[in-house]
Amino acid sequence: ADADVRPFPLIVWHALVEPVFRAVQAEQDKIGEPDEMSDDEADEMAAFWYQAAAGEVVPA
Asked: In tens digits, what is the pLDDT along the chain, a chain of 60 residues?
């Protein structure tokens, strides 16, 4: 099954995901939440967006 997965271009990752990530962090800063997420949270977010980009998950 792994052979069927197309590599997800990093340029697309940075073009699409990073601005959203930055916007979320900016909102958290306004609320006063810590802007540092744990490694686990970052990994989960990366996995989620990777799957979403591959069409496996539809973001709510």
From this structure: 555 556 667 777 777 777 888 888 888 777 766 556 677 887 888 888 777 777 765 555
Is there a domain that residue 58 lies in? no
- Domain of residue 16: give its range: 2-53
**20 lies in some domain:** yes
**Phi, psi values for residue 57, rounded to 5°:** -130, 140
Determine phi and psi for 15, rounding to 5 degrees: -70, -40
Claim: this prediction has a pTM higher than 0.70: no
Domain count, the chain: 1
Find the helix packing angle between 39-53 and 10-31, rounded to 10°: 130
